[in-house]
Design goal:
The complex is a heterodimer of chains A (about 325) and B (about 350). Chain A has about 325 residues and is mainly alpha-helical. Chain A has 12 helices and 4 strands; from the N terminus they run ααββββαααααααααα. Helices cover about 40% and strands about 20% of the residues of chain B. Classes of the chains: A mainly alpha (about 325), B alpha/beta (about 350).
Amino acid sequence: MRRVYAALAALVAAILVAIVAFFAVEAWPAIGLNGWHFLTHDVWDVGRQYGNPILRDGRLVLPGAHYGILFLIVGTLLSTAIAVVLAVPIGVLAAIFLAECIPAALRTWVSFFVEMLAAIPSVVFGLWGYIFLIPFLARHVFPWMAAHLGFLPYFGGATGSGYGLLTSGLVLALMIVPLVTSTVRDALVAQPHGLRDAALALGATRFETLRTVQLPGTRRAMTGSAILATGRALGETMAVLMISGNALNYLPTNIYSPISTMASFIVSQLDGALQDPTGMAVRALAEVALVLCLISVVVNSLARGLLYWQDRISSAWPA
Amino acid sequence: MKPFATILQRRGARLAIFCLALACAGALAAQTINLLETGSSLLYPLFNLWLPAYHRIAPEVRITTQSTGSGTGISDAVAGIAQIGASDAYMADAMMRQHPGMLNIPLAISMQMVNYNLPGLNGRNLKLSGPVLAGIYSGSIRYWDDGQIQAMNPGVRLPHHAIIPVHRTDGSGDTFIFTQYLSFSTPSWSNNVSYGTTISWPAVPGELGAEGNPGMVTATQGNPYTIAYIGTSYEQAIRRARLGIAALKNRAGQFVLPTSATAKAAAAQMVAKTPKDERISLIFAPGPTSYPIINYEYAIVNSRQASAAIAAAMRKFFTWAMSSSGGNAPHFLNQVNFVALPAPVVRLSAAQVAQIQ
């Protein structure tokens, strides 16, 4: 039986390696063609589809083909950053509220609703953003923000049509809040009651108990949930496709600007890329997928490193 | 215990009957021929009208239709995943050289509108030309009251407001025919951007990208001062959204509205020019009453099919679809604002259909 488990575990790991390897092989000609320009330039142009393919560096490409995805990397990272910065504090506060501030009978129900929020398919969030949020933000919220918060960098300027960076960040935040809340709440509830009672008995207020005893104990859960949330926001496709404005070939100028993310770009460009007779456009999309995988791995590794470093610090200087 | 056992026995008997029925259905199904159509979202509504009607004529053929986008339709047909790839665009020369066995068979004629959302002016048909649209989509014409737009529309009080161009972000036959109109009418667009189903759109401040024709309608409806290109199958949605419909300048210098009469006039001009393989753009046709943005809607088909029975079923279906008493009858085409194939084109298509083996 143990061997079966080992084999299954190895299979899962092998699938991960196989997928990355597949994309690396598929994207290889594009990687050679694009070089570092792929990451540093803002021009994605599949070339003239109805022109005659030309040879460039020994590879057959459409005339005028250029592949640069800096605008996608920036759009993906910024929308994810906005989502995580909004979702983690709100999620943690909601978890504290659920764990400490409401009666146990009610807690089950409210927690249930928070978890149901995580069960909503992303396309539903996208549709809601499209029908309700975008017109609401564009007509009421963004103009107000530009007028009153315009002194902050990137908050002023043209507020556009509601499709864009901040809208994407807000919807992504909504999608990842329940992940943070349920993980942190479980960690809070799972803590030994003795610790909290001891702190209260020593004369600490409820807030002091929370800040110095309970929350530090959930640090791992908090970091873990933030990693999960970041991963989900980086890869979210459908909702972002519907509300990001799908900017092509330019960087956002303020937080209201249209953006594109790597995941949604792959979906929207695949059909057109299939019409490239040289196949280079599909290979370049595979390269986008590869970069997205690498960014996810790097973000995960950084977060895990942070976790490790936190543990070292806290074991060196016990609270 | 006993009643429970009886229930079980009854259940068993029912199950046996059900299995027998399934087996019979399976034996019948072995004779039905399954065809898969994937591709163009413009042809998809027409296929949905066709299929129930065709099923009554040929119940032995089961056709499944999927709206996936023209690029996927072509690639599925080439790969043999789908028997019929629906596309708004014909295959490029380079693709035909790679896959010489592929056929591009026109099934109907479609057209495209240029729509706008200008508060107070949507009831009037603004006049626009290819070079003006190229200017708008490349950012050299930024405001609605630009001199070039005003000169075409004397007496119309145009607002001094930035124009928001809306374009498709997904690969699209609509993008293909719209950019062909810009390319054929405007040399600078042809040199710098050219045409295709996916375009590297010049960056214009405020421009919007939308997914699919429904996305184009919502983006235009929701944002005043926008301009967009939308397939005429969506004319009802456009009228419900109260968007403006532009009269476009044709090759003869006349401004014409998208109607079935102007589309037929343009098609009539292009019939004689249509080659045997029928891969031709109908954009910017000559003639004083020709609407400039019309196109053949293609079925992309491999001339070598897996079996003679499949090939025969496909030939029969296409023959019906192109016939004026079958799929090209007005009661089908009018619902999606398509125009029937002219008789000489039907003859060319029939010759191509005969090659499916």
